[in-house]
Amino acid sequence: MKIQRNGQAQVLNEEQFQELMSVFSPSDKLLFGICYYTSCRISEALQLRKEDIIGDRLMFRASTTKNKRTREVKISSKLAVLILDIGLPKAGYLFPSRDGKSHKSRQAADLALRKACDYIGLRGFSTHSFRRSSLTKMYRAGVPLPLLQKRSGHASIANLALYLDIDRDEVDAAGELL
Description:
By secondary structure, this protein is mostly helical. It has a single domain (14-175), classed as hpI Integrase, Chain A (Orthogonal Bundle). 49% of the residues lie in helices and 6% in strands. Strands 1-2-3 form a three-stranded antiparallel β-sheet. Strand 1 and strand 2 (57-60) form a beta hairpin. It is globular and about 60 Å long.
């Protein structure tokens, strides 16, 4: 559990995710929806521009990704609904800063999440919870690790495995397959 910015971010279950989405501002709902539905990092989402939406895909430019590789992710039907409901700017950053000269800061996104979590009584969650939650949910649904790696942009499957929330019961059950 993450406590005072130490430890690993908790994984959101579906109910917690929906509850958070219900209390976010429209802009934060879209921001964290992008993090969840594309498995991206908060910094990648914050730097998205209207021009990075190409048809039914979001392009995470090499200059904004941790591994400096461009990555494209298809916009899922649930994310498409969010985009339509909330709307997008005509150009520029999807999440502009207050002065409009740059994008919203990671600190501002973190503060919005902490306020929402405090409001509904959630503890141990961070902006990284959305990425961990989406990857864990897909893993539990049987999506192979190489596909998750390609989607998330992790440099290795070993790095990806650190994100996944695998509980003791799953480890014990694996042994029963032998």
